[in-house]
Every structure is written in C-alpha cells, then in structure tokens.
Amino acid sequence: MQNMDQLSDVLTAISHPTRRAIIGQLANGPARFLDVAKPYNTALNAVTKHLKLLERAGLIERQKRGREVLISFRAEPLRQVAGWVHEYERFWNERLDEFEQHFQKKKEEKEEKQ
Amino acid sequence: MSEAMKTIEVKVERVIPAPAAEVFDAWLDPKIPGNPWNMAEKLLLNPHVDGFFYWLIHGNSHYGRFTEVERPARIEHTWMSRSTSGEESTVTVTFQPKGEGTLMTLVHSGLPDTPGGRGHEKGWNFFLDGFHKRFTDASQKNK
Fold first, then answer.
1. Whole-structure pTM over 0.90, yes or no?
2. CATH of the domain at B58
3. CA–CA separation, A98 vs B126, rounded Å?
4. Domain count, chain B
5. Mind listing the pLDDT tens digit for each residue in B79-126?
C-alpha cells in the first residue's frame, strides 16, 4: 500500500469540520491568512494549527506574492486517497460530527444561562 | 494473510467538550444523536460484557457482542453487517480526558477491504460534492 503515512495525514486533515470548511473556502481560489480565518469565531492560533495540518497533508500551499502570502488548495492528495476511503470512514465521521455537535450545543446552552 | 482476507482499519477522533464519564454514558444512550444506536428502526442493546446488540437501519441489520465495557475509559464490541461480508469486525472506542473535554478515539478494525466497502465516489459524496467541478477541471488539465 503506497504512502500510508500520507494517507493518514490527509485523513487527519479532513477529519475536522473546520478544516473541511477551510478547504471548501480555498477551493474557490487562493486567500490570505486573515481572510481564511475571518469566518471562524476562533483564536487565530487555532486556525494556524488547522492550516499546519492541511499543509502537512499537502492539501494547501503557501505562495509569496510581494508582501502577501497567499494560501491555495491542492486537490491532488484527495484524489490519491479517494479510492481508499471505506464506507465506515464516512459513517463514523458523520456520526461523530453529530455527536460532537450535540455536546457543543449543550455547552453553548449552558454558557448562555450563566 | 491472504489477499482474500485483507482487512483495513478506520480511525476517527474528536475532542468532545464534556467530561469522559458524561461522553461515555452518552455513547451508550440511544437517545443521544450521533452514537450508533440513535435513529434505529429496531434496536436491542445490552451494553455489558457479553451483552449483544441488534441494530436495524435503512433495512440493514447490524449485530455485535460487547467484549469490553470499562466506564469511563473504553468500550469494545464486535460488529457484523452486510458491509463486513459476514466477517466479525471490531469497534473500539476510548475516552481520554483532554483539558476540560474528552479525546474520543474510535477504531473500526478487521473490515474486509473489498471494492464494495471502499466507498469510492459513493463514500466521498458527503465531502467532495462541492469540489466536483474543480476536480473535473483539474483532471482534464492533467490529460
């Protein structure tokens, strides 16, 4: 089996809803870091961590354009691994997304009451 | 291991914003959305060591036997369904405290690596729909 490590990196990279959203955003075209971070109500260093995982998986690359650094999406690693994803990978990811959201919602409701 | 018996393992992780015991209990409570027992058309669930489950969803039957139930750290059970081609696969879920939350790791091992099981386009629709056009464009460029 070729590139098992790369496969693990790609699957890790796409296992988080925020990282999937970032890929979705970058699939529309390259963007600057602050533009990538803008839609997320989260600390900038959390976005940096997400981007590092995406970069390690080869799903994004950074290019310097003058003073700016543009982040762009690379589809190739996804195509390479698409054939390896088992239907249970999808099943458990969907289930755990829902499970996580349940607790997230519960936590937010609790915080609103305080 | 022969080619016919080749199996694969699926690993999924999430950090859940709640203590491990609460997450553990929720995972075994069919009322909580997202765990495997939720949304069943028919469910028999006895989450104790050597207890069985039967889970029917979209007309597909799933069977298994609990082999480890260690609150709040670990749950392991076997899993048989149409997708495991009659083979007994294993689902192991661990719950480790992480900050104020819980790192939940689910490993589904012993899955037959059959073409039908691999999802391919079917399994990727949830994720790739939005990228379809871009993928098509990119592959045409490569030709």
1. no
2. 3.30.530.20
3. 14
4. 2
5. 998 888 888 999 999 999 999 999 999 999 988 776 555 543 343 334
Sign of CA dihedral B123, A25, A7, A47: negative
Chain A residues with a Cβ under 8 Å from any Cβ in chain B: 11, 14-15, 20, 23-24, 27, 75-76, 78-79, 82-90, 92-104, 106-107
User: What is the spatial distance between Cα B69 and Cα B74, in angstroms, rounded to a whole number?
Assistant: 6
Expressed as residue numbers, the domain containing B128 is 113-143
- Asked if CATH classification 1.20.1560.10 holds for the domain at A4-83, the reply, yes or no, is no
- A58-to-A11, A74, A100 alpha-carbon distances in Å: 11, 7, 27
Share of chain B above pLDDT 70, in %: 75
Asked whether the ipTM of the predicted complex exceeds the cut of 0.95, the reply is no
pLDDT of residue B140: 44
> Which pLDDT does position B12 carry in this prediction?
86
Strand A31-32 to strand B101-112: parallel, antiparallel, or no bridges (unpaired)? Answer: unpaired
Count of pairs with CB atoms under 8 A, one residue in A, one in B: 110
Query: What pLDDT, on the 0 to 100 scale, is given for residue A75?
Result: 77
Instruction: Give yes or no: residues B74 and B125 share one domain.
Output: no
- How many beta carbons lie within 10 A of that of residue B108, not counting itself? 22
Nearest CB neighbour to B118, from listed A75, A84, A95: A84
Contact B16 A97 (CB under 8 A): no
Distance from CA of A68 to the nearest CA of B (A): 25
**pLDDT at residue A112, as a whole number:** 86
Taking CB atoms and an 8 Å limit, are A96 and B106 in contact across chains? yes
